[in-house]
Amino acid sequence: MATKIKNLNYIFNPKSIAVIGASQIEEKVGGVVLGNLVNGKYKGKIIPVNPKYTEILGLKCYSSLSEFGRVDCAIITTPSAIVPQIAEECGKLGVKSLIVLSGGFGEVGNKDLETRLRNAVAKYEMALIGVNCLGVLDTKTGVDSIFLPMHKLQRPPAGGVAFITQSGAVGSSVIDMVAYYGVGVSKFISYGNATNLNEIDCLEFLEQDSETKQIILYIEGTKDGKRLYEVMKRINRKKPIVVLKAGRAEKGSKAAFSHTGNLAGNYLAYKAAFRQAKIIEAENLDELFDFIKIFNQPLPVTGGIAVLTNGGGLGIITTDAIESSGLRLADFSARANNTLKKILPPYASVNNPLDLIADAKPELYNSAVEVLMEDATVGALIIIVLFQVPAMNESIIEVLERASGDRRKPIIVIGVGGEYVSRFRRELERRGVPTYGSPQAGVAALKKFFEYSKFKGVLKE
Amino acid sequence: MLKDFQLLEKNGFELLPYGVGKTFEECAAIAKKIKYPVALKLISPDATHKTEVGGVKIGVNSDEGLCVAYKDMVNSAKKHKIKIDGILVQKMARKGIELIIGGKLDQQFGHMIVLGLGGIYVEIFRDISARLCPISARDVDEMIAELKSHPLITGARGKKAIAIKDVRKIMLSTCKFMAREKIKEIDINPLICDEKGCDIVDVRFKR
To answer: Do A272 and B187 touch (CB under 8 A)?
Structure first.
């Protein structure tokens, strides 16, 4: 691994961080970042740098980094014009990693300025995230350069999902959404202009990162498609990658020589690469979020799906979604059917979807789930819960958490409704149970999960 | 055109039997050898739009038909002041399903290959699938499965599946051809297939 990629360790796990451009003004980027570090989980040394101040938030403020000395990581928020010289100064001091949040480089035409920065960073083999980005978040070490205040943008809990994003706006929105549902994140990287490290370097770093189990990638474009393809293909075998590629509207050239040239815009090449590498592609932000959260479940070994419900209609809609997605319902074994007959009330019939009827208590869900977990015809369970019925209560959360937690078979929970239902969903998500607001969303995610399982050779049909 | 044909053959493409004649007698001899029905195409450095100057005749079924078609073509070329290098006589393609196989060099991802069904499927529904080269036979099968119109290829409404074995071979050859000859764009359009095999009707490529 290249030194610059190894040096990313100094970004995510630094003993000391300098905020160059730190500010006493809360609304300024240098003010927010410093505040987030001081008030957040980060335990290492924090060094504010700004010649205007002698003290910020109770910390001594240095006029330059040279006045203090070497740090592991420098977060730079100054105007772009002075960033290359600051990078040079950092390099001389032995700083291993930089996060440059400042914009005003190549994206507004200042290509030379960006080249000067790139050269300075390369000279000292530093790792640079940026420019023109939100930087990083590490939920374990508390490193946080996201310049959005914590009371406006919630930070997600620690977990296995890493997120690489070209866009800061998309990145921060998804992080907020993920945090709302309590989905655990390992690392977040907004790499902006990719002046030094790009999405491929970040992928290779996360490949080795023991905290990261799954990767979300949001990209608008890449500079090296062939390598992106090779790296994604390799990593996807170990850690599933869900990708959202934006900027697809561009069509093939009308003036193309061939029919193919006319049909095949650049997005088609991305799509071809994703398909070939068996990368899970999300069509939109909703899918991105829906797809990633199912990957904390064990891979299915057989294709049959059991649907459990306490509301008939939702069971039927789910069946339709399963049919049209090309997945299939399980045909329960005779033994499972007999056991289910014994535990179900006499007026309920044993079918798939298995309708437990509206007066089903959480205990009945528990018994039915137990039977289906043991039945070899079942590869995955879709558990629909009408949380709103009188017989349903809080203890369903433990039932579902146990079903998900014992990792015998993948489960997803579908809860359709308003505020009351989303409280249940959030609590379940927090405990690692993937939930969906509609049968279609849940089935679409399950479909991708089955495809991935087949690709891994776990699902054999 | 002939150079292109030879390059394609050298790269493993099986083209419909053909020959080039400079006189009616030569053309008739070729037609006799490859058997009717045949198509005639004018070979000329001047004619880029052959159809518009009467440079293409299809479904020629007999020596008499060949005679009429030959005369028409020569007269038309003279009228348009087009130089005649020769006349290509090629076996007519079978009847069947029209596929389009395309390839191009993408700036970021390198050579890629595209598959679709001809006519409305590609034009209106944009029903195409794509992969990066090189590909395996399995990739081809996945590309076919990915098409919404795939039942037309794999068999539907009492019709048998087309010769997928041949489609695989041609697609694998296309990727190899693009790599070896540094091709920027290629169209095999149409490729006509039935259950017994596939015929390449037209190929255009650019380096």
So the answer is: no
